[in-house]
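Is this the right way to post structure tokens for a design question? Let me know if I should format differently. Anyway, here goes:
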């Protein structure tokens, strides 16, 4: 095997990322291997996807590959150019010559322009720090679930390259070491300037059957209405090498943002691998109103920012909630911006530009209505002033592209409505759990949330199956009714289980006090309330027209006790 630091004629160590294997991929046969930049594009049609040490690493590496493809192919310029790429099995062939041209900037160990690093970066005391600072699965002081417990003493050059890309994208905030030449240093430190750029996003991309499809589906044409890029848009390796400190400038477009240098970094190595790092802040960037340049996240209007800045609209990235599965947030993926507008106001939410691009492809006939994609959602949830990563979100939603069609919105509206059906029905299940606990006199923290978790877990797989088949249905409205019946059946079963488990105390009941006075609450009454709410939530899918068998004072909203103040309700 060739030494990865094979010396040149001048005995300068080198690890050329264009030829050395360093990107982990999943082959079509299920095996994993490391490949070089040249290999990943040459064999993209036979690779399933990138696999990172963490899902966030996969996201960061995909953005790197997209920057290479956009720049090497100088496009796609328009949808016709994209069509030519999609239909040409050798569409990535020009990337070989492009990597030849820029090969020196892809050398991890280059003496003056090391890849994604700042040569000669140093602190005033010439300190070299543990690799824990860039390996995200080893939080400082909290080495739980670590692949490198208890500390990272060494990384191979391939591992170090992956974590270098990840650091620029997802590094935590917090106080960092000051480096010589950085005018932001105070007392040897630089105070918090935010996470890596991708860490501020609720990452979304479109996944196809192969890595080739994935790359092309996310390769937006530059004439796309919702994408803004200057003629000078270019990735980091076509810019002057970064010095210490940060630069104040506006991103030129996706090529720039996909490789944004949010950190200043220098790896310390010997002939056998990397053993230390110097890490500081680089180019900071606020995500405010970057929705026309950053396509891989959904966006939301921020009323507090609009008030503070006295301007409107102000959009911020719509970050992922680790407790909420992707299928429950389908509206943020497929709702057209016109469907989130109230009157003449600007849209409250914007779906990711990548999905606006897929909408254009299906609307203009480049993709068939039933073509299945996976909307992958990946992101980091930070804690303690963004100084640690608490959780990583990694989920997907398989769906036919007709859901994104700009003119035929029927399937999309039924898909969004079906997720809302589930939310309302599970809310009724949570109410049942609360009522049963009150009837038994045992209401405690978590009663409602535990029942809701059970409800959503029971509906997740059925919804995903239902959604994937929606494009093939003759009548989306009938499919919605069938879904409502499935929800009704599933939650009725869960409700019966909760009633059975409530025990004798709940059946005997107790007197409770509400806004309308006192009444006797037991499991029987809680059951009737639940069935009424469920029928109301689902539009009575079986046509039973259930009515409560109680006086008005017993009906929900008329004397029914309010949820306990220590219980949080999330729609």
């Amino acid at each position: 095997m060739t030494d990865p630091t094979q010396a040149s004629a001048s005995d300068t160590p080198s690890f050329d990322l264009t030829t050395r294997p360093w990107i982990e991929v999943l082959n079509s046969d299920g095996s994993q291997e490391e490949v070089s930049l040249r290999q990943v594009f040459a064999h993209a049609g036979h690779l399933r996807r990138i696999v990172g040490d963490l899902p966030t690493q996969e996201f960061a590496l995909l953005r790197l590959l997209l920057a290479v493809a956009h720049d090497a192919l100088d496009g796609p310029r328009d949808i016709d150019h994209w069509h030519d790429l999609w239909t040409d099995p050798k569409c990535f062939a020009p990337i070989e010559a492009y990597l030849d041209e820029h090969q020196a900037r892809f050398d991890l160990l280059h003496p003056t322009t090391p890849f994604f690093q700042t040569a000669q970066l140093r602190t005033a005391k010439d300190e070299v720090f543990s690799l824990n600072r860039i390996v995200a699965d080893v939080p400082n002081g909290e080495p739980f679930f670590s692949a490198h417990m208890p500390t990272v003493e060494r990384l191979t050059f391939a591992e170090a390259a992956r974590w270098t890309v990840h650091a620029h994208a997802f590094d935590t905030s917090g106080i960092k070491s000051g480096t010589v030449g950085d005018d932001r240093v105070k007392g040897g430190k630089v105070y918090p300037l935010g996470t890596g750029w991708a860490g501020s996003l609720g990452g979304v991309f479109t996944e196809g059957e192969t890595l080739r499809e994935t790359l092309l589906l996310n390769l937006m044409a530059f004439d796309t209405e919702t994408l803004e890029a200057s003629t000078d848009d270019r990735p980091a390796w076509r810019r002057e090498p970064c010095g210490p400190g940060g630069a104040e400038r506006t991103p030129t477009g996706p090529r720039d943002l996909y490789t944004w240098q949010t950190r200043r970094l220098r790896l310390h190595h010997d002939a056998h691998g990397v053993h230390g790092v110097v890490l500081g802040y680089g180019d900071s960037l606020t995500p405010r109103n970057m929705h026309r340049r950053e396509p891989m996240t959904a966006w939301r209007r921020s009323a507090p920012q609009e008030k503070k800045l006295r301007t409107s609209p102000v959009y911020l990235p719509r970050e992922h909630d680790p407790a909420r599965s992707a299928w429950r947030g389908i509206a943020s993926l497929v709702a057209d911006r016109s469907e989130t507008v109230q009157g003449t106001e600007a849209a409250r939410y914007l779906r990711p530009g990548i999905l606006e691009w897929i909408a254009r492809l299906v609307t203009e006939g480049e993709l068939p209505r039933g073509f299945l994609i996976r909307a992958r959602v990946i992101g980091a949830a930070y804690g303690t002033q963004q100084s640690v990563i608490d959780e990583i979100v990694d989920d997907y939603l398989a769906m036919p592209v007709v859901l994104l069609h700009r003119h035929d919105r029927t399937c999309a509206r039924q898909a969004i409505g079906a997720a809302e059906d589930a939310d309302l029905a599970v809310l009724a299940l949570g109410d049942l759990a609360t009522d049963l606990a009150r009837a038994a006199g045992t209401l405690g923290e978590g009663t409602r949330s535990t029942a809701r978790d059970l409800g959503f877990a029971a509906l997740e797989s059925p919804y995903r199956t239902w959604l994937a088949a929606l494009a093939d249905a003759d009548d989306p409205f009938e499919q919605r009714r069938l879904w409502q019946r499935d929800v009704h059946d599933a939650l009725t079963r869960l409700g019966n289980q909760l009633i059975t488990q409530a025990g004798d105390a709940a059946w005997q009941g107790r007197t409770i006090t509400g806004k309308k006075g006192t009444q006797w609450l037991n499991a029987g009454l809680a059951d009737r309330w639940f069935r009424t709410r469920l029928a109301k939530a689902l539009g009575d899918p079986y046509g039973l027209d259930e009515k409560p068998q109680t006086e008005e004072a017993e009906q929900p909203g008329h004397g029914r006790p309010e949820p306990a103040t220590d219980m949080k309700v999330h729609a």
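Format looks fine. Someone answered above. Worth noting: The chain has a mean pLDDT of 90. Residues 216 and 464 are 25 Å apart (CA to CA).
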